[in-house]
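Quick one, tokens below. Sequence please?
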């Protein structure tokens, strides 16, 4: 890589800071809550136009709908937008997967719908950090790489998915199928508010328990009834007792629905809980505990107890492979005078799924921001440029062979 080209690329990014902000405002002002199909489609169309940087080849991948257990105990189906995939220089043996989501947690009914410049260096708005800011960082970084010919000896694929905020159930298979084709992955989730990157992530899964009992008149036939609400409560309070039985294990019973008039024994109750855990062993432990709990529950005459869900995002430990990427990122950042430090978190993202599918990755290369998933969400404007530079540096280094240790054949666990 030519040193002058690199300097010119960074200068070009700096002069584009306000263009990045303008693009981000346009992108974030279009609602794309995970359940807002029309909004997702509008953003997908917008991205298709805006992201189509020559000579990328776009694939618009239709995704299956998301199936959810509804509060009435049956299944509801929610349609989602397409996954967008662009392949750049696809015949190059060095290949990086760069991924981020284009949905947000803000539905159409949420009061937070538009961006506001809070200070010169802060932009508030829905998804400005998580993760539309990451999409803008990525797009400008790729433009700089191509414009200044900084990554001619590596190829990369961009994957934007529409359902990360609801667990990526629809796009998971696409990610699983792609994982083996790349040396490593970079995801543009925001870094932590103090600038730290995420190393280890816990695993997470959502579960829904559906209890079918038997309805009866609470006065005349109480003993004929099988109280689904009482059964659900006893099962959930047992599960709550498992908190802390394994290191780092948390179980949050988050929602309970059931029953009606209090003179009727309720025949249906639905409970929902989220589990976070540290490792594969805890996942196996939990599965066994849940299986045996449900088996016992179903032995009770007159009840039918169902459990839906799984640990959809397995824990993402630090491996020898991910350590190599961390070192590569640290070296690249140092060159730019940027500091990198690392922290574990209980939060999950698609980085968990890709790692579990065999693609080592680092997932917090997006901009700095805070207040995620709330009406206080903001992004640091200057970090849009800084993170674009970092991505340019990483990819141009990888392209020039200076991050050889990140090639898949060398990223073996030792
Ligand atoms: Zn996110």
């Amino acid at each position: 890589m030519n040193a002058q080209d690199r300097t010119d690329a960074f200068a070009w990014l700096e002069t584009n800071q306000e263009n990045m902000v303008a693009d981000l405002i346009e992108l974030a002002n279009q609602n794309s809550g995970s359940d807002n199909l029309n909004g997702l489609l509008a953003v997908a169309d917008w991205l298709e136009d805006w992201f189509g940087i020559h000579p990328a080849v776009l694939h618009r991948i239709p995704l299956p709908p998301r199936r959810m257990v509804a509060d009435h105990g049956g299944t509801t189906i929610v349609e989602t937008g397409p996954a967008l995939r662009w392949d750049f220089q696809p015949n190059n043996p060095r290949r990086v997967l760069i991924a981020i989501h284009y949905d947000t947690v803000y539905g159409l009914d949420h009061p937070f719908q538009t961006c506001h410049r809070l200070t010169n260096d802060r932009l508030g708005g829905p998804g400005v950090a998580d993760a539309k800011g990451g999409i803008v960082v990525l797009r400008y970084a790729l433009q700089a790489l191509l414009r200044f010919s900084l990554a001619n000896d590596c190829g990369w694929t961009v994957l934007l998915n529409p359902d990360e905020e609801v667990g990526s159930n629809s796009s998971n298979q696409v990610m699983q199928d792609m994982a083996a084709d790349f040396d490593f992955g970079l995801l543009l989730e925001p870094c932590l508010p103090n600038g730290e990157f995420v190393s280890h992530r816990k695993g997470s899964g959502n579960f829904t328990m559906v209890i079918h009992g038997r309805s009866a008149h609470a006065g005349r036939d109480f003993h004929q009834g099988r109280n689904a609400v009482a059964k659900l409560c006893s099962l959930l309070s047992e599960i709550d007792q498992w908190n802390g039985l394994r290191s780092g294990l948390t179980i949050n019973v988050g929602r309970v629905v059931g029953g009606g008039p209090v003179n009727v024994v309720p025949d249906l109750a639905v409970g929902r809980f989220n589990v976070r855990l540290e490792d594969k062993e805890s996942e196996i432990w939990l599965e066994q505990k849940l299986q045996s709990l449900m088996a016992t529950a179903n032995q009770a005459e007159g009840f039918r107890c169902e459990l839906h869900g799984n640990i959809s995002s397995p824990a993402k430990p630090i491996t020898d492979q991910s350590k190599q990427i961390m070192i590569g990122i640290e070296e690249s950042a140092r060159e730019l005078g940027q500091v990198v430090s690392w922290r574990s978190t209980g939060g999950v993202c698609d980085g968990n799924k890709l790692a579990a599918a065999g693609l080592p990755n680092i997932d917090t290369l997006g901009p700095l921001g805070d207040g995620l998933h709330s009406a206080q969400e903001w992004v640091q404007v200057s970090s849009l440029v800084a993170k674009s530079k970092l991505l340019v540096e990483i990819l141009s280094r990888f392209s020039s062979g200076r991050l050889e240790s990140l090639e898949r054949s060398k990223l073996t666990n030792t």
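The chain has two domains: 3-202+315-406, 203-313. The longest strand covers residues 203-212.
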